[in-house]
Specification:
The complex is a heterodimer. By secondary structure, chain A is of the alpha/beta class. Chain A is built from 13 helices and twelve strands. Classes of the chains: A alpha/beta, B mainly alpha. The interface between A and B is medium-sized, with 28 and 21 residues.
C-alpha cells in the first residue's frame, strides 16, 4: 500500500506561561489514496491539532511542530508558508465543527464560495459565481441560484454545513479533512451530512480524514481508525479490528461507553473513570495508566515507569500498550 | 429598510423637540438676569424693564418656549416700533451683545469647526485603525508593546498640554510654521493648511490613541474566530484574511465610536480652538460664557445636540450596511 498521506512522528507543542502544552507527541499514521481514515479520541487528545498541523493552520510563531507530513510525496513541514497556503483549499481542504461560526457572517455564501474559487484559479467573477451555484447544487441545496445570495444566518444548520462542504470541495481537493463535521448538528441532519459526504467521496475519489468522537460515524464511513489519547496514537487498525478486536484498554473503554439499543441488557453505561490528562503535566510512563483498569496485569509497575511503543499485533494493527507488548492474550 | 429609516427620522424629530424643551428650561432656571445682561453700560431700572418686555422675559417660561418654537418655524420680532429687531426663520435666538441672529453667528463659525473636525477625523481614524491592526498582528512583540505604550501616553495627555508644547516648539522655537491665523481654504489654501496642520495633528494624536487600542482589541478578538480559520483554510493570503475578513468583522464598535466622536468634534473642540485661535463653535461658546450671552449658549448647545442625534442615526443605519444580520427584513 502506497500511502497518499503519511504522518510520521508528528509532535506539536505550544509554549505557554504555565508550561509547555504537548498537544501531540509522536503521532504516526498513513492513508492510502481514496480511502477514509477516522481519528477518534476525546477532547484534548490531539485530533484537531493533528488535522490543523496537516493543513498548515497552526501559527508557527506559537506552535512548535516537528516530524514529517508527506502528502503525495511532498513534505508539508519543509515548505514555506506561502507554498502551504497555495495547497490549502486546492490540494487539501477542511470542514469544521460549527458551520455557523465557520462561515463569515457578513458575506453572502456565494461570495464566500467564489472567493475560494478565485484565490486558486484565474477566472472571472461571473465564472466563479457560476461555479459557486454549481457547487451548491452538488451538495443538494435546493434552488441554489437563489440561495447563493443568502447570508449564513438565513440558512439552517444542515444547509450551512452543506455550504461548508461545497466550499471545501469546490476546487476538487485530493485530501479532505472533516473535523467533527456532524457534532453541532441535529441527529437527523447528521445522517444526511454523513450520507452526502460518503456519496461525494465515491464520486470524486477524495482521500478523507474524518475526526470524530462518534463511533457510529466511524463505522459508517471509515476503513481505518486511529485512536488518539493524550496526544498519542494508542491504537491504529482497520475499522473491523477496532470494533471486534480492540487491543488497547482505552479503545475497549471507548466502545463500552457507547449506548446500545440492540442488547437486552438494561444495565448502565460503562464510562472510563477519571479525566483526560493535563497536556502540561502528562502522567509518567503510559499516559493512560491513571485511568487504566488493566494496569495490575502488567508486572513491575512498568505502566508507571516506561512509555510503551506503538507495536504491531496483527496485520496492519498497531497498539501502544505494555499488555500487547508482553503478548498477554485477552 | 425604507420604513425603518422613516420611523427613525420621525423619532429623531420628536427627540429634537424634547431636546429644545430641556435646553430651554435648563437655561431659564439659571440665576442670570438676561434683561440686565443685555442692557449695556448706562442701565436704569426702566431700561431693564423695557428690555425684559422686548425679550419676552416678562412672560411665563412656557409662553417663552412657545415663542421660541414659533420663532424657529416662522421667525420672530423682538420689541415693537422703530427699535424692533427682526430675526428671520429659523430663528435660534438673537444675540444682543453681538447684534446678530444666533444662527448667523453659528453659520459663520461652522466652517472652521467642520474643517478641524474633518481633517482630524480622517487622520485619527485611518492612522488609529492602521496602527491598531499592525499592533494586533504583532501581539506581544516589541512593536506591539511600543505602540501600546505610546498610545497610553497619547491617551492620557490633556489636549492643552500637547497643544501648548507643539506651539512652543514648532511655531516659537523652530519657527517651522507661522503663527496660526485662520482663513477659509478657498481664500488662501496654503495659509489654511499652515494653520490647520498642527491642530489636526494634536487632535488626531489624542483620538488615534483610543482607536489604536480599540482596533487592536477588536482584531485580536476576530482573528480568533472560526471563520478566520475557514478563510485561511481556503488558502487566502494573510493580508486578505486580515483586511477583508477580520477587520470587516471588527468594524462595528469602531464605526459607533467614530460616529459619536465626529459629532462631538462638530460641536467644537473648545480647548484646541482657543489655543490655536480658530474661529469655531468651541471658541464661540467660550466667548458666550465669558460675555455672558445666553442666547448664543442655547443655540450652540442645540446645534451640538443635533449633530450628536444625527450622528447616532447615521451610525445605526451604517450598522445595517456593515452587518446583514441587523438588517430589518
Amino acid at each position: 500500500m502506497t500511502a497518499f498521506l503519511e504522518v510520521s512522528d508528528l509532535a506539536v507543542s505550544f509554549p505557554t506561561e504555565d508550561g509547555v502544552v504537548k498537544a501531540v507527541a509522536g503521532s504516526s499514521f498513513a492513508v492510502s489514496q481514496g480511502s477514509t481514515l477516522a481519528i477518534v479520541g476525546e477532547s484534548g487528545s490531539g485530533k484537531s491539532v493533528t488535522a490543523q498541523a496537516i493543513m498548515g493552520l497552526l501559527n508557527r510563531d506559537f506552535a512548535d511542530v516537528t516530524g514529517s507530513i508527506a502528502l503525495d510525496g511532498t513534505d508539508l513541514l519543509a515548505l514555506d508558508d506561502d507554498e502551504v497556503r497555495r495547497m490549502r483549499g486546492s490540494v487539501m481542504a477542511m470542514i469544521f465543527q460549527d458551520p455557523l461560526s465557520s462561515l463569515h457572517p457578513f458575506y453572502r455564501i456565494g461570495d464566500q464560495l467564489a472567493e475560494a474559487v478565485r484565490v486558486h484559479n484565474k477566472v472571472s467573477k461571473s465564472e466563479a459565481h457560476a461555479r459557486a451555484v454549481d457547487a451548491l447544487h452538488r451538495v443538494g441545496i435546493p434552488s441554489p441560484d437563489k440561495r447563493v445570495n443568502d447570508y449564513p444566518h438565513q440558512l439552517s444548520g444542515g444547509m450551512r454545513q452543506r455550504v461548508m462542504i461545497a466550499m471545501a470541495l469546490i476546487n476538487s481537493p485530493s485530501l479532505l479533512i472533516a473535523d467533527e463535521p456532524t457534532t453541532a448538528l441535529d441527529v437527523t441532519v447528521q445522517a444526511q451530512i454523513i450520507e452526502l459526504m460518503s456519496e461525494l467521496q465515491r464520486e470524486t475519489g477524495t482521500t478523507l480524514i474524518i475526526i470524530t468522537h462518534d463511533l457510529g460515524v466511524v463505522a459508517d464511513m471509515a476503513e481505518e481508525v486511529c485512536v488518539m489519547y493524550g496526544g498519542r496514537v494508542v491504537e491504529y487498525a482497520a475499522v473491523r479490528d477496532i470494533y471486534y478486536a480492540p487491543q488497547h484498554p482505552y479503545t475497549q473503554g471507548l466502545l463500552a461507553s457507547v449506548p446500545r439499543l440492540a442488547t437486552d441488557r438494561v444495565d448502565r453505561l460503562d464510562p472510563i473513570p477519571g479525566n483526560p490528562p493535563s497536556l502540561i503535566n502528562l502522567p509518567s510512563g503510559c499516559v493512560f495508566h491513571p485511568r487504566c483498569s488493566q494496569r495490575a496485569e502488567v508486572p513491575d509497575g512498568l505502566c508507571v515507569s516506561q512509555e510503551p511503543a506503538l507495536l504491531s499485533v496483527g496485520v496492519d494493527h498497531l497498539v501502544r500498550c505494555h499488555l500487547a507488548e508482553q503478548g498477554v492474550t485477552r | 429598510m425604507g420604513a425603518y429609516v422613516v420611523r427613525r427620522v420621525l423619532i429623531m424629530i420628536l427627540l429634537l423637540l424634547l431636546l429644545t424643551l430641556a435646553v430651554f428650561v435648563l437655561f431659564s432656571l439659571l440665576p442670570a438676569d438676561v434683561a440686565r445682561l443685555t442692557c449695556g453700560k448706562v442701565c436704569t431700572d426702566q431700561t431693564i424693564e423695557l428690555n425684559r418686555a422686548r425679550l419676552g422675559l416678562d412672560k411665563s417660561v412656557w409662553e417663552q418656549y412657545w415663542i421660541f418654537l414659533t420663532g424657529l418655524a416662522f421667525g420672530r420680532t423682538y420689541g415693537v416700533g422703530p427699535g424692533a429687531v427682526v430675526c428671520e426663520a429659523p430663528c435660534l435666538g438673537y444675540s444682543f451683545t453681538k447684534n446678530e441672529p444666533v444662527l448667523q453667528l453659528i453659520l459663520d463659525r461652522l466652517p472652521a469647526t467642520i474643517f478641524l473636525a474633518l481633517g482630524a477625523f480622517v487622520i485619527f481614524l485611518v492612522g488609529g485603525v492602521a496602527v491598531g491592526v499592525y499592533s494586533a498582528l504583532r501581539r506581544g512583540r516589541w512593536q506591539d508593546k511600543t505602540v501600546m505604550g505610546i498610545s497610553l501616553i497619547g491617551y492620557s495627555l490633556p489636549s492643552f498640554f500637547i497643544g501648548l508644547v507643539v506651539i512652543y516648539f514648532v511655531i516659537i522655537r523652530w519657527q517651522i510654521l507661522p503663527f496660526p491665523q485662520y482663513v477659509q481654504p478657498w481664500e488662501n489654501p496654503v495659509r489654511f493648511l499652515q494653520t490647520m496642520i498642527l491642530p489636526w495633528l494634536v487632535l488626531a494624536i489624542l483620538y488615534a490613541a483610543f482607536y489604536t487600542r480599540l482596533t487592536r482589541s477588536q482584531m485580536l478578538e476576530t482573528l480568533n474566530e472560526d471563520y478566520i480559520r475557514t478563510a485561511r483554510a481556503k488558502g487566502l493570503p494573510e493580508r486578505v484574511v486580515v483586511r477583508k475578513h477580520a477587520l470587516r468583522a471588527g468594524l462595528t464598535p469602531i464605526v459607533t465610536a467614530a460616529g459619536l466622536d465626529f459629532a462631538g468634534l462638530l460641536g467644537g473642540a473648545i480647548i484646541l480652538e482657543t489655543i490655536f485661535s480658530l474661529p469655531g463653535l468651541g471658541s464661540l461658546a467660550v466667548s458666550a460664557v465669558l460675555d455672558p450671552d445666553l442666547a448664543i449658549l442655547v443655540g450652540v448647545t442645540l446645534i451640538t445636540a443635533v449633530f450628536i442625534i444625527v450622528a447616532n442615526l447615521i451610525v445605526d443605519l451604517l450598522y445595517a450596511v456593515i452587518d446583514p444580520r441587523v438588517r430589518p427584513s
